[in-house]
Amino acid sequence: MGMALRTWSLPVAGFTGVTVLVVTSGLPGSAAVRLMLGLTGMGVVVLAWLGMRAAPVRELYRIAAAWCLPLLFARPLFSGDVHSYLAQGLTAARGLDPYRLGPLAALGADSPVTQQVSVYWQDTPAPYGPVWLAISRTIARVAGENLLVTVVLHRLVELAGLVLVAWALPRLARRMGVSPGAALWLGLLNPLVLWHVVGGAHNDGLMMGLVLAGPELALTGLAEPLRLVAGLTLLTVAANVKIVAAAALCCVGADLARRWGRTTGRGVLVMLGVLAGFVLLSLVIAAVTGLGLGWVGTLGDSAGLHSWLAPTNQLGFLVGGLGMLAGASITSAAISVTVHLGAVVGAVAGAGVLVAVATGRWHPLTGLGVVFAAMLVTGPVVQPWYLLWAVLPLAASLRAERARRPLVLVSVAGALLLPPVGGSVPVLVAAYLGAAVLVAMVWPSLAKERADHSPGAVRVGV
């Protein structure tokens, strides 16, 4: 009995941390106190997570389910994007075009849904594919303008995506010689998944579930046409949720070109065949949903917001700041140049990865993780939850501990330092300092549990 309690003390600590985060997110009163308590809960979750690297697969599944449970009915965490999803779904449900009209124009300024949408997005048409808009439209028809029901239903969709992640990740890891438990720990149980896929209800959860399930079916079904077609279909559906998922289709297509294309010419034909299938099925999806292809024209709209996390924008701001010191107002021009430069570098990097996959030097899953990482470095828009694009496939494909360690560090930094928690600098400083003190008070007991689990903590399958 004592051993059972000790074994479960880290999971219970993590569950408590998640619960504290959920409860404090809705507390009235001092913003600094509320933020401090929330950060304390987050810190406890991260410490508990770090201590469970050697947990068995079945235990990881149970822990993931338990930690997600308090988040299901919480208010949206760290982002109000789910309200944008509802606004876009309501627009489509009312027979209007969400690819031409933003929430303000479609629903009006008096709509309670419009009022919940960030001012940055109120005039922005939907940038998502027709699969996602069809899902949001269905939810809008069921929930109307009920914000709580809408959030819960969107979370259920993302949980379905996480079920796909939970199914595909250990299978992919096993084929790559990686411990399934290590992959699930770094992928499924990652605090970024809790904060942003479940807490924030971002559609990246559904996208990544499809992105991982697709290769598991396609690359293991070369002798089974139905399995191969199912895998490619899932990847096409993923790209019709968010277009960035097309990178997975390209990586799988490059691997198929290697396997089936005995010559360069035949390899190119295989790749073109995969892309033709993607276009054809996308046209069918556009027709069946009735949403058309208007989303193609909105894909670049979010790039104009100058995401501060994007390295290309940071470089542009730096150049612009230097220009201001010299008396020149060049910030906008500098950002434009650095963003376009990033696009070129990203395209070259992506092409290089596809060549590496097509020639057999890289596995397509590793290639996919690297392509997504390149998007984060060279793209114009970066959000904390985008880190999962790279972390999830690499969690199942990187075997060496030294290669996996940066993924852990990025996840910890993304979970504790990058959430858009808001607040003035004094409030943030006070909250982080207070949280550090509170976490330090529980650290000794968590550290002891981590020590008890340490013999297998740094081992991954090789």
TrEMBL record:
Protein name as annotated: Alpha-1,6-mannosyltransferase
Spans through the membrane: 7-27, 33-52, 181-198, 228-256, 268-295, 315-334, 341-362, 368-391, 403-421
Domain of life: Bacteria
Provenance organism: Actinophytocola oryzae
Keyword Transferase tagged: yes
Pfam family, one: MptA_B_family
Gene Ontology MF annotations: glycosyltransferase activity
Subcellular localization: Membrane
Similarity section: Belongs to the MptA/B family.
Keywords from the UniProt entry: Glycosyltransferase, Membrane, Transferase, Transmembrane, Transmembrane helix
GO CC terms of this entry: membrane
Membrane topology value: Multi-pass membrane protein
